[in-house]
Amino acid sequence: MRPYVISLGAGLLVGVLYSLLNVRSPAPPLVALVGLLGILIGEQIIPVSKHMLAGLPLVGACREAGCVAHLFGMLPGRHQVNAATTEHVVEKRS
Fold first, then answer.
1. 77: alpha, beta or left, given left = phi > 0 and alpha = psi -120 to 50?
2. In Å, what is the CA distance from 66 to each residue of 41, 56, 81, 94?
3. Sign of the CA dihedral 66, 69, 70, 71?
4. How far, in Å, CA of 56 to CA of 62, rounded?
5. What is the distance between the alpha carbons of residues 60 and 89, in angstroms, rounded to a whole number?
6. What does the alpha-carbon distance between residue 68 and residue 44 come to, in Å, rounded to a whole number?
7. Distance from C-alpha of 77 to C-alpha of 37, rounded to nearest angstrom
8. First-residue to last-residue Cα distance in the chain
9. What is the pLDDT of residues 24-82, one digit of tens each?
10. Residues 6+ apart with CB under 8 A from 19
11. Which long-range contacts (CB under 8 A, 24 or more apart) does 36-41 make?
12. SS (H, E, C) the chain
């Protein structure tokens, strides 16, 4: 959750600076988000292509390259669920 808060804070700071300098943001929010999505997808083209050249199908190549984790990151609360599950498993084994 911390990276999301830091990212939001940095965005707010930049927005305040733009406002104080009377400057418009360089791109409308939707265009900027689509551009960021393009960057994230573009970063995966080379790793996925290498796996596909090794003979894996597209889905397998994406899985091996870790595309889903890279594109979506760890969602808030997922690590807490995993930690709780791990503790539960450790308790069962003891």
1. left
2. 12, 14, 20, 33
3. positive
4. 9
5. 29
6. 10
7. 23
8. 31
9. 877 777 888 888 888 888 888 999 999 999 999 999 998 998 888 877 776 666 555 55
10. none
11. 40/70, 40/71, 41/71
12. CHHHHHHHHHHHHHHHHHHHCCCCCCCCHHHHHHHHHHHHHHHHHHHHHHHHHCCCCHHHHHHHHCHHHHHHCCCCCHHHHHHHHHHHHHHHHC
- Pair of tokens at residue 70: 């890279």
Which position has the token pair 């970063």?
43
Residue 77 tokens read as 């609360």
Q: What pLDDT sits at residue 91?
A: 45
Amino acid, single-letter form, for residue 14:
V
Residue 66's identity, in one-letter code, is G
> Is pLDDT larger for residue 20 or for residue 31?
20
